[in-house]
């Protein structure tokens, strides 16, 4: 008979958890399986998911009304109404209908005056592409719409199906054995109840009715609670029959459980009693890393490994069982499933951007949240009613009450979180220029640095730097060309941030050029070929647009000569999607976007896509994790598959000192 069980030591909680997770992390790798999208609720994505089609996949009417050619409505006013005939000048259209050439604008039905059947009057001109949802407004074909290790929610199912994704790979739910131990345990139905017939003949317990239970018998409630916690954590529980306090019986049950399951949880028998056999059995079968942790309740927890699988001995008291499961078993479950479950919370944050609203509505605005300079910042995402991806990307939401016309930047707001606050405070908040590399970095961050994330909002380089200046982001992805010097980023940063010590994390060398239909049917090879084509531009302040303006100026071309110069897209992939769909002849963008959609590409030149941030942020753990991912071979391998990138100096940090007027640029390597 084994000697009385003794604790190995009274290990501090953090040390115990770190020791155990470091050990079992080497043994656990999430496995995947393919399931139907409709069946994926609550499951965890095993790999990033890329859209098969754009949403919308065609230029769609955003309103009921009429489709017109915007140019033909020029000059319409109340004093000079314009009359149009159906078929010849306009087409009746409903929300969601395709808007086909030559029409390029939609006028709302309430703004149309019907003169007679088929003849209408307009009192105002239509702007090009007004009231049209452009191809890829929500997301573009070949764009990453969900990252790895993402828990599928109802909105995610809708997002994937709208992107043409009918099946997906998810992590396999770990099989978890739950072993209740103790001679004193009985099943719940072993207790006899005095019951009376209830309404409709159903049995319902009468208040005060007596129950009989054998003295010394304890109902096995813990194993049911543990099984429910396993299910809640994304696993599949297998509750085994009660095992009496017998050394050989318990040993054989543990061996059987280890052989058949991914994780084994043993309830009771972990303390110092004469019949507490769990610890000595686990020492005999495998390795006990921790026995005894400096917590109350839950001190006698056992953390072990048997045959390469984690085994945890949980104390018998219910509070201790619950505490130890959440402290030790749940993190082990997370290693199998890939992501922790979020604890919903409400937080106070500072609004990063002015929001205008209507007194007609109580409005819900999706936001990203990050801890910037000890202040929680809420950055609003796209508010379009058809943009489901903003709901998927959001960290939470805020409410603008109906009696308010909006909220000013800097206002204190309450955010309802979708994610755990622990993760939010370890999230790099990036606002600025978009690139596919950002999506890949966001996917790799939790892989290479658990519980650390990247959240990005795409507003263009200049708008990102201004957000950084206002203290609303950790870093700003940018690729701003200085016309005077021909240098990227540093001159603009020194001009915007007069006296603040800034830094620049060197990023990627990107190839910019013309994104064209396959075969380049219009033989576009240079800037001079753009007039006369249907162009699609980037938004004001975007580095790509600044590059275009610089090259147009060099070539002596007036932007007004470009049809579509005022048609704006917010990402490179949206530009590529418009070209792929035939909605535009050409757009300026990065090579990786053209490659992703199988389009032609004519190189215009290389540029530097970097990340600006205050020097004070360089010591943050999640910023260091970002730099580590930027340097990683995993990121390089994925980007090489996309093509169009150079990696020299990626992750190098330049310290940019306040500008000295006698020296145009001042920086040093960190």
Write the layout of secondary structure elements.
Blueprint: H1 13-25, E1 32-36, E2 49-50, E3 60-61, E4 65-68, E5 82-85, E6 90-93, E7 105-108, E8 113-116, E9 119-122, E10 132-133, E11 144-146, H2 154-162, E12 167-171, E13 175-180, E14 185-186, E15 192-193, E16 196-197, E17 203-204, E18 211-212, E19 218-219, H3 222-232, E20 236-239, H4 247-260, E21 263-267, H5 278-285, E22 287-291, E23 302-306, E24 309-314, H6 318-337, E25 346-351, E26 355-356, E27 363-372, E28 375-380, H7 388-393, E29 396-400, E30 406-407, E31 412-417, H8 421-424, E32 427-432, H9 436-448, E33 453-458, H10 461-469, E34 476-478, H11 490-496, E35 502-516, E36 535-538, H12 543-555, E37 568-569, H13 572-580, E38 586-590, H14 591-596, E39 600-614, H15 621-631, H16 633-642, E40 645-646, E41 653-656, E42 667-669
Parallel strand pairs: 13-20, 13-21, 14-19, 21-24, 25-28, 32-33, 36-37, 36-38
Antiparallel strand pairs: 1-12, 2-11, 3-10, 4-6, 4-7, 5-9, 8-9, 15-18, 16-17, 22-23, 23-24, 25-31, 26-30, 27-28, 27-29, 29-31, 34-39, 35-38, 35-39, 35-40, 35-41, 41-42
Task: Provide an overview of this structure.
There is one protein chain. With 670 residues, this protein is of the alpha+beta class. It is 24% helix and 28% strand. The protein is built from 16 helices and 42 strands. Strands 34, 35, 36, 37, 38, 39, 40, 41 and 42 form a nine-stranded mixed beta sheet that branches. α9 links the parallel β32 and β33 (453-458). It starts with 12 loop residues before the first helix and ends with a strand. 45% of the residues are buried. The model is unreliable at 194-210 (pLDDT under 50).
